Amino acid sequence: MIDTAVGVVRKQGVRGLYRGLSGSVATSTPSSALFFTAYEAAKQSLKGSVPERLQWSVPMMAAALANVVASGVRVPPEVVKQRMQTGMYTGGFITSAVRLFREEGPRGMYTGYWIQLLRDVPYAALQFVTY
Fold it and tell me: For residue 52, with 0-12 CB atoms within 10 Å meaning exposed, 13-18 middle and 19 or more buried, which class applies?
């Protein structure tokens, strides 16, 4: 890890260590807010419709549903962030997002949506059922 950091600093300067940070912030903040809003709403909705003996599964189902919703907001900035981090796009986050949209359209903004769901939904479901 140290070798990687040193290599980045040598080639790109200290700023290279922070490439894509604006994308990370743009990804995490709105999607986390949406996730927890959707989670609480789903949990309240499910509580009344799930039998008492299965109430333990409500947080799991609510987390899975919330993740599907939040991923709709999380994926586009994540794609932009990844492109910035790999050096495909240079400049700021907004400039990179506009370039991605112009070059690949809405589909390009959601590259990897289903893969992210396959990764994140089971994780969130297990995390919230054991929390």
Answer: exposed
Match 């997002």 to its residue by tokens: 97
pLDDT tens for each residue of 47-64: 989 999 999 999 999 999
Residue 102 to residue 105: CA distance in whole angstroms: 6
Return the pLDDT at 101. Answer: 96
Q: Is 28 exposed, middle or buried (0-12, 13-18, 19+ CB in 10 A)?
A: middle
Query: Helices marked H in the chain — which ranges?
Result: 2-12, 21-49, 58-85, 93-109, 113-130
Cα-based angle 82, 85, 89 (whole degrees, multiple of 5): 85
